[in-house]
């Protein structure tokens, strides 16, 4: 039973990381109606930034968040401002951000070469470390990502339920025109939301650099994680993303231990299809909320 | 009038994208139901050839139609479940189709009868010799399939089915109120669309030569058909063709690795990296400048575009020696695109200074966003 | 602009394009000549210069190359998931061509290497090779990086009769083309020889493992080594282990894009093997090691199939003692040959200049080097750019490569036997440990089930 227990724990924690990776796309698509592939690039470049600071400048990998997140927030906000200015449509946003995505991949390749970049253990003790409770191990990077995801989830829930900003976001998600008619400043809300989403992407990038090796083509591989999370969690839902990430992580882990890791993707995708057939707005959303 | 082999090969690849983009657009572009799942149907086509022709020795010619049918069955099956459910529209539909693609890939990977993780090499496939050498054969097959697909797209567009799809695009509830059989229309269009996606994929398997799950079911094909169709214009069957031409010729010609030494060698720009930056930038500019896709504008400014194209090719011929014909075509094409970029408001303001204003009857219909 | 004229426009355009295309299709059957097959009479210098295929820079033949350059075409995965390792092959190829040109070129002419980006996609690789051969009319080709793209490109090479030296194709059983020449020195049956070599190495310590866990990447090459050719009774590492009396305590496969290594680490710990056989690619090794470390669990020893060597060195203490296969390492006795020692150093410098984090001239780079040596040997042996002549020469002569002299055996898909070695991380670096003739003095396999 410890085998299953440990696997489930691993799945839950990595679900937090998946959630952090997916939040940007989910919020952007669900609330702002922008399919923003550039978030994948933000995760990647934030990871590279963290790598650079940790491997060459000797920063503690956790501390790199402080440098990387503000840059991402500014970039995300500027991008959103740009989208507002040109009044971009949904399909167009997919294409434009796809253009940005391939550009950013080139940049990463030019600066860091196409080869693997992994923070060496001497500079990053966290990749192998873990918190031990009751005979189970909670791997440090994944645990941190999970805790962060919960904090962010609670923060967003607070924002949504208790603040004007939150109400504005919910209003926009439900009915953009009516919201505007009622005086919601779409631009300001959108930019702030984009900033928040970019911050989560950057944090995800830091945790990825802490636990894995980076290479420019890595971002494409995340499509197969983020979109299932977005599908399961429901567009625009933060807690949904968390629930979905955890679900996917746990299902994959249990499948891995029961039938072998090669069956993990199939199990995940079967859940996906089942969800879409029976509860397409996502497993974790209430019908009219963000 | 012989053409060197290379043009056949390039022609085939262009025809392949014509078929893929057109097949996708004839459903999504017309109906507004955003399908993100082209990969599933393309993949079914490819692997049908892989399993029947490579593993079981069927001749390619026999496997191809079966692939189209299997693809269409998958599409119809999916449609049957999904089109009835009111809530599965818009973004949700996109995600459902994407999920289907993931599931098909996962099944193929796990099943050793299909792929099992080892990939399939297609060097032993029985090719139709009566169609000539390999490049000729591929070109002819590609041509037939592309022609059929585009013909279907054009026919649908101007038919009752097409009218129905556009009305669904504009407002499905209203369309139903008007008596449009929305379920039947969607099923038909989706079935035809996925049939051609599979057909084209089945032939393409031989071009890929060695098929693997990662490659066949990657996000590349679904993303590219979307890019090509949106760029070219989604409400007309010419849109995907224009988009495919521009994207494919550009990516083909820009694929040259080399180094550009600037500032006396202090800064070396690796051109292979610049390729993607250039394409990304061009894509962004084109998409932002031309809201409904290039085709509607091309239709209206066709003489200006044609003139720009010819000028571009001639200029390339004169000023840049040793340019291949395709590269010259790209220069001309970029020149034509340049002419299409200025927004109509600007153009009519400029032309109204010299003549009567254009009649509003020439405005193309607004493409509805999902 | 009337409505009817506007709707005629697309039809007109289509008809024009269609006409052009049909004309192309009809006219083509007469022009199916293969470019580059005609003998190049200007460069037929007579006796083949075999010294150029050796390692030492040949200062006696340094006549300045003249005339049109010889163009050698290939693709490489400059972007995509194969790009990390392909970067090494780019550096190796560039260096080889540079040295070749500095030493008089090929057949007295400069060599130019044209590399296109296949984006790690077999489809693209196939089209680009066809383009290189038919549009660019390159004089010769060399293979891309990665099993998928190599397998696809090979079919194109076969179609046009081009000699294709290739370095990293792992599906040895599909390479039936007579004129493909593999430089990877693991032989025709890595599913047998790879594991026999490993088990021999382990047994040489006198304290071999009793139990082995197999965790295999679902990549065609690694699956082949572990299980043998699909749809056959051939065995692989797993069945050979059983035949040799090892207890197989775990046998699982994982998708290449696995992100959660926790469950896999937990399964390995649960199986508690004496030895772990990880059919690894890229950074699978460090990922699994980190996940096992997080469980406070270390395996007493492990073998990785084809890992990226650099990241393993940065994977911490648990990575000590990890083994893999290699064909060349930049240390004695491989570097006893001053020519190759110089090449290893030059490669290291070039890789550093290119920004690569790991710069050792080892398996990948040397396999690339060997492939180039084969190409050059074939062309010089034939005395011309005639592909059939080069193919013939290569099939009927012993060719000098960085791995030693090789004879291509057509019965074995042109594989020449197993020349690989086992390497191990000792004192923070990779070193060859088995067979003994490849190990530096005093170095041998370190393994015991106690860890």
In short:
The complex is a heterotrimer of chains A (290), B (370) and C (451). Chain A has twelve helices and two strands. Chain A has 290 residues and is an all-alpha fold.
What does this protein look like?
Chain A contains 12 helices and 2 strands, in the order ααααββαααααααα. Chain A is mainly α. Chain A has one domain: Orthogonal Bundle (ABC transporter involved in vitamin B12 uptake, BtuC). In chain A, strands 1-2 form a two-stranded antiparallel ribbon. The two termini of chain A are 37 Å apart. The model of chain A has no long low-confidence stretch (mean pLDDT 88). By secondary structure, chain B is mostly helical. In chain B, the strands form 2 sheets. Chain B has a two-stranded antiparallel ribbon with strand order 1-2. The longest helix of chain B has 27 residues. The C terminus of chain B is likely disordered. In chain C, the strands form 4 sheets. A 7-stranded mixed sheet of chain C has the order 7-6-8-9-10-13-14, sandwiched between helices. A 3-stranded parallel sheet of chain C has the order 2-1-3, sandwiched between helices. In chain C, helix 3 runs parallel beside helix 4, helix 5 packs across helix 6 and helix 12 crosses helix 13. Chain C has 2 domains: 262 residues, Response regulator (Rossmann fold), CATH 3.40.50; 155 residues, Rossmann fold, CATH 3.40.50.2300. Chain C is an alpha/beta fold. The interface between B and C is large, with 58 and 61 residues.
- The overall strand count of chain A is 2
User: What summary fits the major beta sheet of chain A?
Assistant: 2 strands, antiparallel
CATH architecture classification name of chain A? Orthogonal Bundle
Task: Give the % helix of chain A.
Answer: over 70%
Q: Could you tell me the radius of gyration of chain A in angstroms?
A: 19 Å
Low-confidence stretches of chain A: none
How many discrete structural domains of chain A? 1
User: What is the CATH topology of chain A?
Assistant: ABC transporter involved in vitamin B12 uptake, BtuC
Total helical elements of chain B:
16
Summarize the largest interface: chains and residue counts. B-C, 58 and 61 residues
Mean pLDDT of chain A: 88
Largest sheet of chain B: 2 strands, antiparallel
Oligomer class: heterotrimer
Number of strands of chain B: 4
Query: Which CATH C-level class of chain A is it?
Result: Mainly Alpha
Strand residue content of chain B: under 5%
The rounded distance between the terminal residues' Cα atoms of chain B is 47 Å
Give the strand order, joined by hyphens, for the main sheet of chain A. 1-2
What is the share of helical residues of chain B?
A: over 70%
Rounded to the nearest angstrom, the radius of gyration of chain B is 22 Å
Ranges of chain B where pLDDT stays below 50 over 5 or more residues in a row are: 260-266, 359-370
């Amino acid at each position: 039973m410890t085998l299953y227990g440990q696997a489930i724990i691993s799945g839950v924690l990595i679900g937090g990381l998946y959630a952090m990776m997916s939040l940007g796309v989910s919020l952007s698509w669900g609330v702002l109606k922008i399919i923003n592939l550039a978030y994948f690039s933000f995760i990647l470049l934030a990871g590279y930034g963290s790598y650079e600071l940790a491997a060459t400048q000797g920063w503690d990998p956790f501390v790199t968040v402080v440098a990387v997140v503000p840059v991402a927030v500014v970039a995300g906000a500027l991008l959103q401002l740009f989208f507002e200015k040109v009044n971009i449509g949904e399909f167009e946003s997919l294409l434009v951000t796809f253009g940005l995505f391939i550009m950013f991949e080139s940049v990463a390749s030019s600066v860091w070469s196409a080869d693997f970049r992994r923070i060496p253990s001497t500079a990053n003790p966290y990749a192998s470390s873990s918190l031990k409770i009751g005979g189970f191990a909670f791997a440090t990077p994944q645990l941190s990502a999970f805790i962060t995801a919960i904090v962010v989830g609670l923060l967003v829930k607070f924002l949504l339920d208790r603040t004007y900003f939150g109400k504005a976001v919910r209003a926009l998600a439900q009915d953009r025109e009516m919201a505007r008619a009622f005086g919601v400043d779409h631009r300001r809300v959108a930019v702030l939301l984009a900033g928040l989403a970019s911050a989560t992407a950057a944090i995800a990038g830091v945790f990825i650099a802490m636990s894995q090796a980076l290479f420019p083509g890595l971002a494409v591989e995340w499509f197969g994680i983020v979109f299932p999370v977005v599908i399961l969690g429901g567009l625009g839902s933060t807690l949904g993303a968390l629930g979905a990430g955890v679900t996917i992580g746990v299902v994959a882990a249990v499948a891995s231990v029961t039938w072998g890791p090669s069956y993990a993707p199939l199990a995940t995708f079967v859940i996906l299809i089942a969800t879409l057939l029976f509860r397409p707005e996502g497993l974790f959303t209430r019908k009219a909320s963000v | 009038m012989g053409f060197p082999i290379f043009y056949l090969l390039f022609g085939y690849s262009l025809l392949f994208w014509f078929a893929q983009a057109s097949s996708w657009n004839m459903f999504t572009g017309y109906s507004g139901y955003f399908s993100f799942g082209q990969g599933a149907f393309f993949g079914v086509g490819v692997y049908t050839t892989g399993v029947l022709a490579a593993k079981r020795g069927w001749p390619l010619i026999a496997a191809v139609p079966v692939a189209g049918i299997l693809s269409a069955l998958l599409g119809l099956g999916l449609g049957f479940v999904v089109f009835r459910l009111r809530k599965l529209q818009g973004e949700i539909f996109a995600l459902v189709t994407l999920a289907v693609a993931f599931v098909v890939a996962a099944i193929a990977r796990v099943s050793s009868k299909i792929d099992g993780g080892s990939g399939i090499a297609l060097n032993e496939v029985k090719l139709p010799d009566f169609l000539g050498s390999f490049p000729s054969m591929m070109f002819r097959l590609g041509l037939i399939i592309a022609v059929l697909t585009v013909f279907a797209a054009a026919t649908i567009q101007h038919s009752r089915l097409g009218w129905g799809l556009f009305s669904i695009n504009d407002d499905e509830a209203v369309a139903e109120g008007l008596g449009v059989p929305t379920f039947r229309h969607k099923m038909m269009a989706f079935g035809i669309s996925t049939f051609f996606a599979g057909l084209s994929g089945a032939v393409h398997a031989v071009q890929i030569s060695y098929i693997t799950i990662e490659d066949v079911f990657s996000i590349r094909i679904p993303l590219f058909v979307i890019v090509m169709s949106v760029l070219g214009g989604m409400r007309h069957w010419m849109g995907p063709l224009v988009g495919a031409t521009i994207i494919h010729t550009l990516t083909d010609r820009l694929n040259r690795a080399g180094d550009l030494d600037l500032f006396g060698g202090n800064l070396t720009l690796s051109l292979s990296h610049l390729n993607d930056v250039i394409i990304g930038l061009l894509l962004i500019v084109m998409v932002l400048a031309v809201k409904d896709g290039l085709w509607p504008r091309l239709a209206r400014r066709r003489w200006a575009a044609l003139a720009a194209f010819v000028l571009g090719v001639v200029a390339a011929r004169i000023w840049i020696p040793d340019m291949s014909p395709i590269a010259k075509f790209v220069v001309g094409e970029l020149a034509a695109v340049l002419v299409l970029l200025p927004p109509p408001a600007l153009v009519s303001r400029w032309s109204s200074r010299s003549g009567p204003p254009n009649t509003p009857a020439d405005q193309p219909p607004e493409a509805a966003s999902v | 602009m009337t409505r009817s004229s506007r709707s005629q426009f697309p039809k007109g355009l289509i008809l024009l394009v269609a006409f052009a295309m049909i004309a192309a299709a009809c006219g083509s059957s007469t022009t199916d000549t293969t470019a580059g097959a005609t003998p190049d009479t200007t460069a037929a210098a007579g006796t083949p210069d075999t010294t150029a295929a050796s390692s030492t820079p040949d200062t006696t033949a340094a006549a300045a190359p003249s005339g049109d350059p010889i163009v050698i075409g290939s693709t490489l995965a400059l972007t995509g998931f194969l790009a990390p390792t392909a970067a090494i092959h780019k550096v190796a190829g560039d260096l080889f061509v540079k040295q070749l040109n500095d030493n008089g070129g090929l057949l007295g002419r400069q060599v130019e290497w044209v590399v296109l980006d296949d984006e790690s996609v077999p489809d693209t690789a196939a089209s680009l090779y066809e383009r290189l051969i038919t549009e660019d009319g390159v004089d010769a080709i060399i293979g891309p990086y990665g099993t998928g793209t190599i397998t696809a490109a090979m079919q194109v090479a076969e179609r046009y009769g081009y000699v294709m030296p290739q370095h990293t194709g792992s599906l040895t059983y599909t390479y039936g083309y007579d004129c493909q020449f593999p430089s990877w020195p693991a032989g025709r049956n890595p599913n047998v020889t790879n594991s026999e070599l490993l088990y021999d190495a382990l047994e040489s310590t006198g304290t071999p493992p009793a139990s082995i866990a197999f965790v295999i990447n679902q990549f065609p090459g690694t699956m082949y080594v572990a299980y043998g050719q699909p749809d056959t009774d051939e065995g692989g590492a797993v069945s050979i282990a059983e035949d040799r009396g090892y207890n197989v305590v775990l046998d699982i496969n994982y998708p290449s894009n696995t992100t959660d290594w926790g469950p896999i680490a937990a399964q390995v710990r649960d199986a508690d093997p004496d030895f772990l056989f990880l059919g690894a690619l890229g950074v699978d090794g460090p990922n699994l090691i980190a996940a096992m470390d997080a469980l406070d669990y270390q395996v007493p020893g492990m073998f990785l199939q084809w890992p990226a060597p650099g990241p393993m060195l940065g994977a911490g203490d648990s990575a000590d003692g990890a083994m893999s296969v290699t064909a060349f390492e930049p240390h004695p006795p491989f570097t006893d040959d001053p020519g190759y020692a110089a090449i290893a150093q030059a490669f290291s410098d070039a890789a550093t200049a290119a920004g690569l984090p790991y710069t050792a001239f080892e398996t990948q780079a040397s396999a690339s080097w060997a492939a180039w040596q084969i190409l050059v040997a074939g062309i010089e042996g034939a005395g011309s750019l005639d592909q059939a002549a080069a193919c013939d020469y290569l099939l009927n002569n012993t060719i000098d490569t960085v791995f030693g002299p090789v004879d291509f055996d057509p019965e074995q898909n042109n594989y020449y036997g197993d020349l690989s070695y086992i390497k191990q991380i000792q004192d923070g670096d990779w070193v060859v440990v088995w067979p003994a003739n490849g190990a530096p003095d005093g170095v041998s396999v370190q393994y015991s089930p106690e860890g």
